Amino acid sequence: MNNLDDKIKNVFSNESLFKSPAVNSIFSGYNLPSFIKDWIAKKFSDEEGKIDAESLKSFLEEHIVQKGVKLKGSLIKDNREVTLLSRIIVEPDVLTGVFKFSIPDTDIKSNEGIIPMYVVNKNKEELLGGETWGIIKLVYVPPEDKQRGYIEMIDFKPFQPYEINLDYYRESREEFTTDEWIDVLIRSMEYNPDGFESTQQKLLFISRLLPFIESNLNIIELAPKGTGKSYVFSNLSKYAWLVSGGKITRAQLFYNVSSKQSGIIEKYDLVTFDEIESIDFGEENELQGALKNYLASGTFTMASHKGTSSAGLVLLGNIQLNEYKKPIYSNHLFDLPEFFQSSALLDRFHGFIEGWKLPRIKENMKLNGYTLNVEYFSEILHELRISPDFPEIIGDLLSIPKTADTRDTIAIKRVCSGYLKLLFPHVKSPNDIDKDTFKQYCLMPALQMRGIIRKQASLIDKEFSESLPEIDVV
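Above: the chain sequence. Below: its structure as tokens.
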């Protein structure tokens, strides 16, 4: 262990754990996101971070279902209660008034699982529809009086293992230098900071966290394969939703008028379109119009339904590079679907991550040390999204010309706010941060990220200028 290991362990004694490739190998064969794996690993770790591997394996075998397991047959045959930590999908049936559920990693389909109303009522929002993680208790109810048999969920406990003390987290940041804290963030993303070449490369890497921590922040990242972009957006938080390939419609994203069900944009903190070259955008004109309105205002209207959400949108795609590892085309969106070849749509994105400047994931980037538990870290990011003091601090620190373009101003403020929350969460007034430090770590990266959006929009549409307003620190 090094000094940073000791500091993380001591400052975040209850919220940290030791993570290594050997620990990760225990979970091989289980389709679990990082926020679940970390909680289980912590459960079977002692004060020195040593894992009780045998007990952990026993827990996995008893309470975690492996993909393709024949759970139905086991429930029917053994006629006993089964308790699982699992991902479920709840589907309210409007015609029958029944709450149905399925377990994606098993053979239980939505027409075979039923949640009784007393369980739904006990859990308020969690079981009203959509995907969620929780501790569930299942029994088989055999057929009776011409009624079909079914799997019943007799108990449900949402997966929320941490009571978050945001003030504690913010105050704890003061125990670390800025360079140390950047490394803490990278470790919390499950990577080894020693595998990066420079501080600038580290800052670019943690910029992937911005839409997790800042509301309604829309980001584009283009990168070659193997740089870990999909992993970050699919594993770090239960508040994020990843769309990878397949078809996406306006009803799925925003609101299904026929079933009167909210779409994914209202249920999550951020929605990511991964491998956007391979996604089929049904009803493209309608979806593009809805996206333009939502990305600009955070609201949308579908028939009589008026929706509001704080979810940001992230686009992930691949990009062709030349022998010098630079984009082949000055128009970075050249290989993307025509759906995104719109300057008006592009202008509604706040920043662009140059993913080709990040290293491919190699063995020396695998974490082997102390880190924040991913579930705890994801809850912190979620809570910081709505922390009320950061917008006022940003407003006081920035000097914005009266002639500045409003979309540029909004974009730069939001990216600045995201960096401030990530890097300096302890700041509670403009006087708590050195102005040069704020400019270096918050404003300059924000200008860089928004400047790329501006340049790309100008290459698509000559009516767009690539120049940014002269925003500076007061």
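Residues 402 and 469 are 10 Å apart (CA to CA).
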